[in-house]
Amino acid sequence: MIIERNILELLLSNDNETFIDVSVLEEDYSKIKEAVAYLKSNHLIVEEERKPRNLEAFGISNNRILSINVKITDKGRDYVRSMLNQQNAKSPRSGRKNFWRFAF
Fold this sequence. Notes:
By secondary structure, the chain is mainly α.
């Protein structure tokens, strides 16, 4: 779930309605592919439909790592924002403690 969260936070922070390459977030390409498939099945992201070129005639194998371009949907934005709001709501008293510590 950490990879999925990292993907969603990256897409939310760079949200300009364009596709962003997320294959650089993790070294394990298969884990990123699984995370993208999970997020896509929940309709949180949209993956760019691209067909890889067949380059075997030039001596390049078709097993190479390709970029995974995705963009966040409205449902994904709402999900990430609610997740961040819940995280911020868990510790409301910690801010007060710091305030009073600095006040006196």
